[in-house]
Amino acid sequence: MSDIRVASRYAKSLLDLAIEKGTLEQVRQDMLLLDKTVQQNRDYQLMLKNPIIKHDKKLAILKAIFDGKVSPMTSLFLEIVTKKHREAVLESMPKEFENQYNLKMNIQRATITTAVPLDAAQREEFNRLVAARTGKTIQLEEKIDPSLIGGFVLTIGDKQVDDSIKSSLQRLRNKFNDNSYISKL
């Protein structure tokens, strides 16, 4: 079974347990910390996947890093994952937890890429439009790409709306390069 599938199952179990115990938001913050640690530390990633390092040593490292920084439930969860020899899934599990959390809380992630930063009114308008289209609470991530020149690229799940000047110019260029278009003139 792939690590992503295993991570998804562990994440779902942790989410269900956190809801049952009433500690969902605390566990989510713990998962965000775990994800941040994974993303910022290549040695940590390699340690989790290294089959030469014994599981008890990995558990000691995890405890040294996270004891006192995460809830007792998350700490126990890390211990269980380690005892089951599944430390490698700890790299992808926080993202899977976030996906499960978003599903449970009816949150839709969207990414808006613009040439310049959005102001508050534009941000609110995008949130309103995407919420109206999806019927979900929106978690909007903003990216800046000056090469767009103007306009925006909005990505919601696997759908993308590209209304950038860069793409409009590319479409126009393609039309002029298309011989059949020139012959129609």
TrEMBL record:
Protein name: ATP synthase subunit delta
Molecular functions (GO terms): proton-transporting ATP synthase activity, rotational mechanism
Cellular component annotations (GO), alphabetically ordered: plasma membrane; proton-transporting ATP synthase complex
Cross-referenced NCBIfam families: ATP_synt_delta (TIGR01145)
Location of the protein in the cell: Cell membrane; Membrane
Native source organism of the sequence: Adhaeribacter soli
InterPro entries: ATP_synth_OSCP/delta_N_sf, ATPase_OSCP/dsu
Annotated signal sequence range: none
Source domain of life: Bacteria
